[in-house]
Amino acid sequence: MSAALPTRYDQLAADMTEAIHSGLLRPGDRLPSVRQTCTRRGVSPATVFQAYGLLEERGLIEARPRSGYYVRARSTRSATPQAAAVPAEATPVAVAALAFDLLERTRDPAVVPLGSAFPAATLFPIEALARSAGRALRRLKPEQITSALTSGDPALRQALLRRHALQGVPLTDDELVITHGAMEALNLCLQAVTRPGDTVAVESPCFYAALHALERLQLRAVEVPTDPQEGLDLDALDALLQQRRVAACWVMPTLQNPLGATMPAARRPALVALLAHHGVPLIEDDVYAELQSDARRPLPAKAHDTQGEVLYCSSLSKCLAPGWRVGWAAAGRHADTVRRLKMMTSLTTALPPQLALADYLAHGGYDRHLRQLRAALDRGRLQVAAWVEAHFPEGTRITRPRGGYFLWLELPAAIDTLALCRDALAEGISSAPGVLFSADRRFTHHLRLNTGHPDDARVPDAVRRLGELARAQLAHGGQAPAGQAPA
């Protein structure tokens, strides 16, 4: 089914929470009166009281007798995590085994999925996709069974080209290859421009699947400082490229995983120009762009490419159909190499999901689904942030992404989040420790939380319990009490 629209008081509370977190409403500011809010928003007094009640529960505002509602003073939990200093040395990658060990259990429905990489399945339009699949397969012609080799189904390719063109990204048909999700696209692109032993520049922290790809291809990672709000540090990248040879640069400019950072629009052409100057291909991971809360998202780096050196990768897995595994690569001048690698590995992408998604995109409803999905994800992200502020130790810092479904937490330095995650997993709560997001496992007191399950009634208690475990570990010098899980 499609995502449920938030109630009017949920939406009002979400808007005011965002205003508080962005600084438009500051500690000590008086909120508009109930009457003013009713007039401005066209809602009833009951809706305003419910919204203000939610904000009180989250610890964001307080009622003062005969005076009104005020923004509460914010604790250090509201601060944004700091960008990490990283060494310029390239590091062999070996994180796959740890990630598999910790994340395998996120598929267990009994485990609260704060460590998952996907939003709740109930947020996707399952019934509409099923109807599209039925229509597409009934229209299937025998010649289509082989005509989609290797680049993908023509109807889906045209639908994607049209959508990108309307968004200001004119891809060309001859560079587009349909893949088994974005991960295959990214792996193929990485393999196309590197050889074993090469060094690849990555963000720090970096999505662990990127590190898995480097590990599989026997590549080395050199990490570049990445700001939790504005993304990759271009000055640091420039200094790195002047010092050493780098075969490729893998970047997620929009809603970077795990930080949620979005690189400002003005810096994206500078990123492309910098890498082109040094002759370094850019592998652009753009899987979360459709989840940006802002109505007008920044153009991807690919839109500024004039030399064919941006290998653009995306998919419908995070925003529409996770299990269908349909993604694509637009690899510029490296497209023929990517196509050959695709042919030598998986040959082609399964045809039925391609046909179904082409039908879904053609029959409309996708943008309406995205609006509903973004509203649900915004609600979940703000809820979890408020619960973290209420329950985690003083000194915890939280990112404030403008979209998506991840929060990155920096906890007090004494806390070992790998131990914290294992203790929580023993109680049926998954989370993703910071060590997964670095080749040298540097983020030892950091944590990524999935906030994409806004209607899961278990999430509030799970976040509260994680906070209790963190406080207990902190009280015992950064370790759980000997012989027992923290209480």
From TrEMBL:
Q: Does the keyword Mitochondrion apply?
A: no
> What GO molecular-function term can you cite, just one?
transaminase activity
One Pfam family here: GntR
> Where are the coiled-coil regions?
none
Q: Which UniProt keywords apply?
A: Aminotransferase, DNA-binding, Pyridoxal phosphate, Transcription, Transcription regulation, Transferase
Q: Which residues form the HTH gntR-type domain?
A: 6-74
Domain of life here?
Answer: Bacteria
* Listed PANTHER family: HTH-TYPE TRANSCRIPTIONAL REGULATORY PROTEIN GABR, TRANSCRIPTIONAL REGULATORY PROTEIN
**What protein family is recorded?**
In the C-terminal section; belongs to the class-I pyridoxal-phosphate-dependent aminotransferase family.
What is the protein named?
PLP-dependent aminotransferase family protein
Species name: Pseudaquabacterium rugosum
